[in-house]
Amino acid sequence: MAVRLDDLDRKILGQLQEDGGQSLDDIAKSVGSSKTPVWNRIRKMREAGVIKHQTYLLDAEALGFEACFFVLIRTSEHDAEWQQAFLRALKGRPEVQEAHRLAGDIDYILKVRVRNARAYDTFYQALISEVKVHNVTALLSMEEIKSTTILPL
């Protein structure tokens, strides 16, 4: 269920999405309010689950993670036991940045960030040793054109 937000809430969220590390004073100034009401709104949005957590975005390439693969997975297994094993396998792998269950011909898509193709193969071999999959297609991203975590408020 969506939480009701007013214009000030949206402005505050916009500022937090742009730079979650900025000071409360800077956010208040940017949204045209004072510090205490801004802090109270942020606290309420945290309590309501609108703000999940604060984190920092790292530059993957600067840290040596130069390869980004989108992995398309088809499975002939759809029982609860297989799904639990698959979820455990994914959660235990920090290379998996995103995982989505899909409608259509492909069952799952993963975004996997690794240092290089050899590291992807190590990831792939480990995954298929833990869970049975029918078909895996790996697509190497040649260039990241757009990537954002900012929601269009």
Task: Write structural notes for this entry.
- This protein folds into 2 domains: 7-47, Winged helix-like DNA-binding domain superfamily/Winged helix DNA-binding domain (Arc Repressor Mutant, subunit A, Orthogonal Bundle), CATH 1.10.10; 67-140, Lrp/AsnC effector binding domain/regulation of amino acid metabolism (RAM) domain (Alpha-Beta Plaits, 2-Layer Sandwich), CATH 3.30.70.
- With 153 residues, the protein is an alpha+beta fold.
- The chain contains 5 helices and 4 strands.
In short:
The chain has 153 residues and is an alpha+beta fold. It has five helices and four strands.
Give the helices and strands, then pairings:
Elements: H1 7-18, H2 24-31, H3 35-47, E1 67-74, H4 80-91, E2 96-101, E3 108-114, H5 117-130, E4 135-140
Antiparallel strand pairs: 1-3, 1-4, 2-3
Helix pairs in contact: 1-2, 2-3
Fill in the keyword field for this structure:
Alpha-Beta Plaits, 5 helices, alpha+beta, Arc Repressor Mutant, subunit A
Largest sheet: 4 strands, antiparallel
Shape: elongated
Describe the strand arrangement of the main beta sheet, using strand numbers.
2-3-1-4
Q: Find the count of extended strands (DSSP E, 2+ residues).
A: 4
Alpha-carbon Rg, integer = 20 Å
The termini sit apart by 16 Å
Identify the CATH class of the largest domain. Answer: Alpha Beta
Q: List SSEs in N-to-C order.
A: HHHEHEEHE
Structural class: alpha+beta
Summarize the amount of helix as a percent range: 25-40%
Mean pLDDT: 96
Number of helices: 5
Range of strand content = 15-25%
Looking at the structure, the CATH topology of the largest domain is Alpha-Beta Plaits
Domain count, please report it.
Answer: 2
Named CATH architecture of the largest domain: 2-Layer Sandwich
Question: What is the CATH H-level superfamily of the largest domain?
Answer: Lrp/AsnC effector binding domain/regulation of amino acid metabolism (RAM) domain
Q: Which segments are poorly predicted (pLDDT under 50) over 5 or more consecutive residues?
A: none
